[in-house]
Amino acid sequence: MSGAYISYPFCTQKCTFCNFASDVYSRDIRERYEAALLDEIRAHRWRWQPETAYFGGGTPSLMADGLLRKLMDALPGVCLRETTLECAPGTITSDSARAWLACGINRVSLGVQSFVTKELRQVGRRHSAATVETEVKLLRDSNLSNINIDLIAGLPGQTWDSWEGSLDWIERLAPAHVSVYIFEVDEESRLGSEVILGGRRYGANRVPDDGLVAEFYERAVARLEVLGIRRYEISNFARPGCESRHNLKYWKLEPYAGFGLDAHSFDGVHRWSNSESIDAYLGKRPAERTLSNSSEEHFFIGLRLAEGIEPTPEEWRRFARPIEKWTSSGMLRKEGPRLRLDSKAVLVSNEILQDFIA
Question: How far is CA 73 from the centre of its chain?
Answer without folding.
Answer: 24
